[in-house]
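Subgroup meeting minutes
Present: P.N., E.W., G.H.
Scribe: E.W.

1. P.N. recapped why we're keeping a running log of single-chain structure predictions: easier to compare across weeks, and new members can see raw inputs and outputs side by side.
2. G.H. added today's entry (173 aa).
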Amino acid sequence: MGTRLRIGVVGLGGIAQKAWLPVLGAAESWTLQAAWSPGKEKALRICETWRIPYADSLDALAAQCDAVFVHTSTASHYEVVNHLLNAGVHVCVDKPLADKLSEAEALVELAARRHLTLMVGFNRRFAPLYRELKGRLGEAASLRMDKHRSDSVGNDLRFTLLDDYLHVVDTAL
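Output recorded in log:
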C-alpha cells in the first residue's frame, strides 16, 4: 500500500466523539495525524482517549495533514475552513457550511480556486439505518417530524433548523 492519507480533526465536542472519531479511528486507509480544539485541557483528554496527537494550533495541524474534518460550532466554520483552505488542506466540515450564504459561497470559490476538495458532512446521510429508511420510503410527498429530545431545541429557531432538523430534510431528499 502507498502513503496513507494524513487526517486531522478540528473540534472535539460531542458530535466528533459520538459520530466521527469512532469511524475515523477505525479505518486503515489513513492515519489520524493530529487534532486541535479551542479548549486545550478538554482536547488533551480526548486526544489521549483516542490516541491522537494534539496540535498546538490550527497552523500546526494544517502543516501535518492532507485533509481535515471540522466539527466546530457553526459560527466558527467560515473562519476555520477559510484558514485550512488557505493552508492548502482538503476539508470536510459538518453542516451547515457557514452561518451566512455569502460566507458559504466564498468558501466554495476559495476551494475551487485552490483546487481543493471541500465537502459538507451530514453525519447521518451514509449511516446504514438512514440509508435503509430512505430506500424504503422512496419519493416523499410530505414530511412530518416528531422530536422527543426537548433539550435540543434552542431558543433560536434558525439554529434549531440548521443544526438539527436539517438532517431530516437531508434524509428525505
